Amino acid sequence: MHRHLRSLCCLVVLALAVGFGSSQTKPLRVLAFYSTHVEQDHVDFAMQAISFYQAMAERDHFEFNATSNWDDLNPAVLKDYQVVLWLDEFPSSAAQRKAFEDFMEHGGAWMGFHVAGWMESRATWPWFADFLGTMFSGNSWPPLPATLIVDDSNHPATKGLPARFVSPDNEWYSWQPSPRKNPNIKVLMTLAPSNYPLGFKDTLGGGDIPVTWTNTKYKMIYTNMGHGGKILDSATQNRFFENALLWLGGRD
Ligand code: ZN
Questions:
Q1: Which domain holds residue 75?
Q2: From the CA of 112, how far away is ligand 1's center (Å)?
Q3: 219-239, pLDDT tens digit by residue?
Q4: What's the gap in Å between 96 CA and the centre of ligand 1?
Q5: Residue 12, in any domain of the structure
Q6: How many separate domains does the chain show?
Q7: How far is the CA of 61 from the centre of ligand 1 (A)?
Q8: Can you give the pTM of this predicted structure?
């Protein structure tokens, strides 16, 4: 029994040593939060995103875990991770929110997808409104593809992307005010004017509608993509999803 334990310990130490040796840095660990009790299109995206990032983790040698238990958003769990993803959901309790604030205020990294940036009113969570840099204002319906302008293809998250590309079917959100008006926000992608009017039942009529940005006070990226099962069908857009995670994990 003891011998087995000792061999197991040796294996773990060896595995850690190999991990350190290959990356020269602390092994990257990413934790994705999702929910199965939300709109089906949001569950579908979360499931596909988990498969997508699991495959990427194997290729790029980092650890990727996913949980639908939002109480895992606590200091004891978060201390083992450098990057947290919110796949189409957000925390609902004061304790979960506080743990996330502390994580982000102390060097943690975050990427939020689609409804992760939704909030009914600023009063729900003022810290998050400042962190996101804007507030949800409206949405398009049904899900449609849209042409996106890449505002800055020199940023590590958008490196190698063309100046514009067609993003697959998504429910698109508008924001008030435009995140671009916030001095802490750097916009990475924006809906091209040629999309408008975007939607049939619910329509985005025009204006400046960024879809992906970073708050430069934090290591974070919000992206509006994430509704339904087609989001990961674009190799171009997938490059962004990969780049963004590598940048957040300090691997760019
Ligand atoms: Zn949606």
A1: 27-248
A2: 13
A3: 999 999 999 999 999 999 999
A4: 22
A5: no
A6: 1
A7: 31
A8: 0.90
